[in-house]
Amino acid sequence: KMAAAAGAAAAAGLWSEVNRCGQNGDFARALKSVNKILQINKDDVTALQCKVVCLIQNGNFKEALGVINTHTKVLTSDVIAFEKAYCEYRLNRIESALKTIQSASQQTDKLKELYGQVLYRLERYDDCLAAYRDLIRNSQDEYEEERKTNLSAVVAAQSTWEKVVPEDLGLREATYELCYNSACALIGQGKLNEAMKKLQKAEELCRQSLSDDSDVTEEDIEAELAIIHGQMAYIMQLQGRTEDALQLYNQIIKLKPTDVGLLAVIANNIITINKDQNVFDSKKKVKLTNAEGVEHKLSKKQLQAIEFNKALLAMYTNQADQCRKLSASLQSQSPEHLLPVLIQAAQLCREKQHAKAVGLLQDFADQHPANAAEIKLTMAQLKIAQGSVTKACMILRSIEELQHKPGMVSALVTMYSHEEDIDSAIEVFTQAIQWYQQYQASETRGANPKSPVHLSLIREAANFKLKHGRKKEAISDLEELWKQNPKDVHTLAQLISAYSLVDPEKAKVLSKHLPSSDTMSLKVDVDALENSHGATYVRKKAGKLTGDNQQKEQGQGEVKKKKKKKKGKLPKNYDPKVTPDPERWLPMRERSYYRGRKKGKKKDQVGKGTQGSTTTGSSELDASRTASSPPTSPRPGSGAAVSATSNVIPPRHQKPAGAPATKKKQQQKKKKGGKGGW
Fold first, then answer.
1. With b meaning 16 or more CB within 10 Å and e meaning fewer, what string describes 581-618?
2. Which has the minimum average pLDDT: 181-185, 240-244, 263-267, 413-417?
3. What positions belong to coiled-coil segments (predicted)?
4. 387 within some domain
5. Which domain-ending residue is among 106, 134, 162?
6. Cα gap 665→659, rounded to integer Å
7. More confident residue, 95 or 25
């Protein structure tokens, strides 16, 4: 009895110690006291609960969960459900946490709060929204602001990832967290300018709230603002301001924030800006996306986008095997997704395996008809790149849901025109027009009014047929257009023009419907037209011509002044007594006396013939020494006048005297340049 009493007294003292340490927040010391209590009574339910709480407060979630699982008989789900679910949630065992919460017999407020967090992590946003609405409606405590923040985060996630138009929750954006979430929702809707204003407001509120605390430094404020600045940079990137976005992204990375999720997103966005440029920087940044814990911080779509960009980076860096491996893994995770198969096809094209790429895309289109349209557009692009325009047209025409679209019709007609296949182009127009006729007949129950798109297609078809000389085929289209709008003079004129070559009588009948010149009132400001620059010029010119004609008719007036021709500039050494060289306008190579340059000959070497033979002396060849030679106009490169007497070699047998000197100059320049080439 005395031992039992002593044990009870010791336990009481230990419990007092546990209570005091708990109030002071010293859970490490409280844990020691709890362990001593459990040595006295190992199955004490309260002591076990306190031990789990102390371990959770110290961040030892795995150990706390081990204690719960070891004492399942004592710590039943009713007693410890929240603590167990919380440990599983913090250990990123989200599915297990959900099961624990759902298996609890009583749903306490704590479990409901945790349930909302678990649903958010599982990306079940509709259920999460309902859970938080219920909590806000039925709770009145100091955590109401946090619940509203979480509610706005759910709405932002719906807008961003599910493209759901967010409803107005009527939340007063008094904190920077609420402003930030509101900005994210606006980004999801594409309202980028409004989102930027919200983020600027969030930054201002954040600075105000943190500057009030004297212990917070400027570095702490910048670290807190990092996520807001990251979203600002993302908006800049979406707006095409890539340089500004890149600068802000790099500023955030220099701060070295502790949020691995934020770093991964920023690194991924920088990689998307770099694309196939600056791949070494992208390789550095991709390491940030592989940090531990990233998969628990980001949504599934964010993680998927990062993996897609890794595959593209592998392709840009010519890591073909790595690219194939990553894209194949992505395709196995999301078989219906387009990007993995497109990346594989792009890699095959880089390897010049275009036929294999088209086959891969065709297999995907056959397996996933819902996504076949986008795949077939890519296939057509590949065929065009290969020069197979006709095959590309066949692929495009196989996309039934796009056949009638004006953009598709325009593309097909352009391609067929390029191939000079006018019949096929007209067939494309005909099929599209028929589709609209059938569609509108079913929609309007036989009333069949023409929509603007339908009428536009008919007009384009008519213009195309007229352009290519198919006037007979254009007549039916023009009649349809005129029937829809009898006041359309332009269409009537086209119709008359078409009939004039086919049925002149019909053209005459239709011409009666043209308005008379008296009834046509053109709203033209005559004074403004006459005072315009072009009209003034034409009027002046016409006035001059009229005046000249009148003078000619009357035989009076002055003779029109002739413009004086400017005398051409003559050479400095021009001699009017010498007849100019008739071939002076021709290049030297084209003149009759040019015999080409002889390589390797010096200036004074003029000898010809076999070794030992003599030639005429250079003095005899100098025509300037003959007194009877009449002077002529000097030619470029010639140092002496040429004689026309019979005892002198005529010019066609001479070579220009200046040529060797020029050649020597060129040789000197060549030597000066050395072996460097150009």
1. bebeeeeeeebebbeeeeeeeeeeeeeeeeeeeeeeee
2. 413-417
3. 94-149
4. no
5. 106
6. 10
7. 95
Q: Tokens for 38, please give them.
A: 């459990």
Alpha-carbon Rg for the chain, nearest whole angstrom, is 46
The total number of structural domains in the chain stands at 2
Phi-psi region of 104 (alpha: psi -120 to 50; beta: other; left: phi over 0): beta
Q: How far apart are CA 334 and CA 311, in angstroms?
A: 15
Q: What is the CB neighbour count within 10 angstroms for residue 63? A: 15
Residue 419, Cβ neighbours under 10 Å: how many?
13
One DSSP character per residue, 154-189 reads HHHHHHHHS-PPPP-------SHHHHHHHHHHHHHH
pTM, full prediction: 0.66
When pLDDT is cut at 50, 70 and 90, the band that residue 624 belongs to is very low
Rounded CA-CA distance 447/441 in Å is 7
Residues 6+ apart with CB under 8 A from 304: 330, 333, 334
**Do residues 588 and 594 lie in contact, with contact meaning Cβ atoms separated by under 8 Å?**
yes
Angle at 21 between CA 17 and CA 23, to 5 degrees: 120
Is 246 part of a structural domain of the chain? no
Cα–Cα distances (Å) from 310 to 14, 174, 290, 313, 326, in that order, read 57, 40, 10, 5, 8
Closest CA to 657 of 613, 604, 617: 604
Domain of 454, CATH number, reads 1.25.40.10
State the burial class of residue 458 (Cβ atoms within 10 Å of its Cβ: 0-12, 13-18, 19+): buried
Q: Which residue type occupies 59?
A: G
Average the pLDDT over 327-345 and give the result: 88
Q: Return the number of other C-beta atoms located less than 10 Å from residue 312's C-beta.
A: 23
Domain assignment present for residue 26? The answer is yes
Tokens representing residue 204 in the block: 């201002």
Both structure tokens of 615: 């030639």
- Segments forming the whole domain that contains residue 462: 435-514
Q: How confident is the model at residue 92 (pLDDT cuts 50, 70, 90)?
A: very high
Task: Copy the structure tokens of residue 13.
Answer: 């003292």
Q: Is residue 35 part of a domain?
A: yes
From the CB of residue 73, how many other CB atoms can be counted at a distance below 10 Å? 7
Measured CA angle at 338 (ends 333, 343), to 5 deg:
90
